[in-house]
């Protein structure tokens, strides 16, 4: 055991303090929800934390988003390094530096030192995603940026409140470099007040239990988590597991997916994650700093220990080895705002490895978070001419061992996020939601299917000078199934221009694309990957999915070999043709390996001729195309087929 604190608290006091620390962070969240200015933060793109005097995380809230779990202690420690010996009651500091262990520039952290009679006892931290931090495009997500200078304002540790007095000159300077300065100032005060909530609660606990017992409790809750995780790891076999996942592309290089390779080793009560073999940094914002990579590791691993609270005790048995200047360990000034793309690949790879260790909790790949950002002049509101439309959608999580995947769920990247209400977006932005519903056939087929994704279509209304950016992935590294399960479907966005009526496929990665009033934009989110052989799915379960419109009659036969007769669609009367189902399943079993090894050029031509769609291409033929033109992506196809062989074909009987 590596615990460093002798246990001195009685069990009752320990339990009260442990839960009080978490509750104080949850109260910070309630404060932010009621006082924030940004619609993005209101939809829970934030997290909070309580830290000890050394900056170690003592507690996070019950609904804090997964992406921040392993980064808050880094930024707290960086603030300590910057202001050590120069901290006072009433101070509040700001930082958003991804090179100091943060995530990306949009996640701005406000950190307050907490004192008891001038003795520093801890810190509270509030992290909120500001919808714009300047840079070359609205929303500060320019996928073509190679260095941070085209991304956003970098905030190294600065003081925003000094002994309780607001440093308005510093705050106004930051806000003036954004497209929505009024909201930025409002969010600063909201986050500062949230840190004060935790300060008040910690000082209340000191008044009740005494300083020594409270600080002892802050140490012991970390030791408790460490002991618990170490014991569980000791109960597991030693060994090494490996997984590879991909980012779709490097915009500055040729066609081909970008590998992220992870080797996980368990030895005793210690775990090492080695990223040797991962690709060097790419010419885009889709790079991750070391802090964000560490967070992805612990967030993925924490999924398999859901009952334990999250704090720095969880981190003590985890070692990360990441090659310098790789896509998982970018350094200044490499662009990193799109770190969420490697982040989710790391999480899903860790899901796959831990699924082999804990098969009772096994899960296939989840859909990829996507951000749609648009900005311009809102002609409805002359008093606030610049608007910022920033939206994400839910999708499907992977099928599980013995259970279908979660439908229409926020991404594993940020499980605390809300699904944004269309009415709220329509109120604050010149947009109209024309369609927002579960997307039929999006779940990856399997014995246990993936969860369902959605499709959303919107129209730009009274606006001018509007440009759009789409931050997404899994257009080529399509959401995969495991244990014989099948993939979901590609991501991507299309636009219908009002002046021409022409529909244009833009794909999953673009920035600064001009749109005008009346233009319509549509994008789906993938479902989760399937778990287990689809030929082993109970036909009655397939029938239920058809009745519920998760699966179409056509794809029930194509993907599951279940032939369903439509008796009365309006009355939801369907019937399984058992003889035809037996024949269809036998035919699929006899031919599916050959289908998955069909000449990719033939598949491309079938797609261009309209004989197959993108689901057929990835699920039956394991081929990746340009989904707008049908052009074959040979390198991506080769990589995708290697994944398909290992995750699907190898498990078919």
Automatic annotation (TrEMBL):
Name by which UniProt lists this protein: N-methylhydantoinase B
Signal peptide: none
Keyword Hydrolase among record annotations: yes
Entry keyword annotation includes Hydrolase: yes
A single BP term in Gene Ontology: glutathione metabolic process
GO cellular component: cytosol
One matching Pfam family: Hydantoinase_B
Single GO MF annotation: 5-oxoprolinase (ATP-hydrolyzing) activity
Keywords: Hydrolase
EC number: 3.5.2.14
Listed InterPro entries: Hydantoinase_B, Oxoprolinase-like
Domain Hydantoinase B/oxoprolinase, chain residue ranges per copy: 10-534
Taxonomic classification: Bacteria, Pseudomonadati, Pseudomonadota, Alphaproteobacteria, Rhodobacterales
Coiled coil ranges: none
């Amino acid at each position: 055991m590596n615990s460093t604190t002798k246990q001195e608290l009685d069990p009752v006091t320990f339990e009260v303090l442990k839960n009080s620390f978490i509750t104080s962070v949850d109260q910070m969240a309630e404060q932010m929800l009621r006082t924030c200015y940004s619609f993005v933060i209101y939809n829970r793109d934030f997290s909070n934390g309580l830290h000890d005097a050394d900056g170690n995380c003592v507690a996070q809230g019950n609904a804090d988003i997964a992406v921040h779990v392993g980064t808050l202690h880094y930024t707290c420690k960086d603030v300590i390094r910057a202001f050590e010996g120069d901290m006072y009651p009433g101070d509040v500091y700001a930082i958003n530096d991804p090179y100091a262990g943060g995530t990306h520039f949009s996640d701005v952290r406000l950190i307050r030192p907490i004192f008891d009679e001038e003795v520093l006892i801890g810190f509270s931290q509030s992290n909120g995603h500001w919808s714009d931090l300047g840079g070359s495009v609205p929303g500060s997500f320019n996928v073509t940026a190679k260095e941070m200078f085209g991304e956003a304002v970098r905030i190294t540790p600065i003081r925003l409140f000094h002994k309780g007095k607001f440093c308005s000159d510093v705050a106004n300077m930051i806000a003036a470099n954004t497209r929505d300065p009024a909201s930025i100032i409002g969010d600063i005060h909201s986050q500062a007040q949230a840190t004060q909530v935790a300060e008040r609660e910690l000082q209340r606990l000191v008044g009740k239990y005494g300083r020594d017992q409270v600080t002892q409790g802050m140490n012991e809750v970390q030791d408790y988590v460490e002991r618990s995780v170490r014991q569980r790891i000791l109960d597991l076999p030693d060994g090494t597991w490996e997984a590879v996942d991909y980012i779709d592309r490097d915009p500055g290089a040729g066609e081909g997916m970008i590998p992220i390779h992870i080797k996980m080793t368990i030895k005793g009560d210690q775990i090492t994650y080695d990223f040797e073999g991962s690709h060097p940094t790419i010419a885009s914002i889709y790079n991750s700093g070391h802090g964000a990579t560490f967070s992805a590791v612990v967030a993925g691993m924490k999924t398999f220990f859901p009952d334990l609270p999250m704090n720095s005790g969880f981190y003590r048995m985890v070692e990360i080895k990441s090659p310098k200047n790789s896509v998982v360990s970018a350094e200044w000034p490499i662009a990193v705002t799109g770190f969420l793309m490697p982040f989710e690949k790391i999480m899903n790879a860790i899901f796959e490895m831990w699924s082999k260790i804990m098969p009772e909790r096994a899960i296939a790949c989840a859909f990829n978070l996507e951000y749609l950002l648009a900005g311009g002049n809102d002609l409805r509101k002359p008093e606030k001419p610049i608007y910022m439309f920033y939206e994400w959608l839910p999708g499907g999580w992977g099928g599980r061992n013995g259970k279908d995947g979660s439908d229409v769920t926020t991404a594993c990247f940020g499980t605390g996020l809300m699904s944004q209400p269309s009415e709220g977006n329509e109120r604050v932005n010149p947009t109209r939601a024309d369609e927002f519903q579960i997307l039929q056939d999006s779940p990856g087929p399997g014995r246990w299917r993936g969860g369902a994704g959605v499709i959303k279509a919107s129209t730009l209304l009274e606006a001018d000078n509007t440009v759009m950016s789409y931050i997404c992935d899994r257009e080529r590294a399509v959401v995969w199934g495991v244990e014989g399960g099948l993939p979901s479907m590609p991501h991507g966005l299309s636009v219908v221009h009002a002046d021409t009526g022409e529909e244009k496929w833009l794909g999953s990665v673009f920035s600064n694309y001009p749109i005008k009033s009346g233009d319509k934009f549509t994008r789906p989110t993938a479902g989760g990957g399937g778990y287990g052989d689809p030929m082993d799915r109970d036909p009655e379960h397939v029938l239920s999915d058809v009745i519920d419109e998760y699966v179409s009659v056509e794809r029930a036969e194509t993907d599951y070999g279940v032939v369903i007769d439509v008796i009365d669609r309006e009355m939801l009367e369907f019937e399984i043709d058992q003889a035809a189902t037996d024949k269809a399943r036998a035919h699929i079993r006899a031919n599916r390996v050959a289908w998955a090894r069909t000449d990719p050029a033939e598949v491309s031509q079938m797609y261009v001729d309209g004989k197959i769609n993108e689901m057929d291409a990835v699920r039956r033929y394991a081929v990746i195309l340009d989904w707008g033109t049908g052009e074959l992506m040979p390198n991506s196809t080769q990589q995708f087929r290697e994944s398909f062989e290992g995750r699907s074909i190898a498990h078919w009987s």
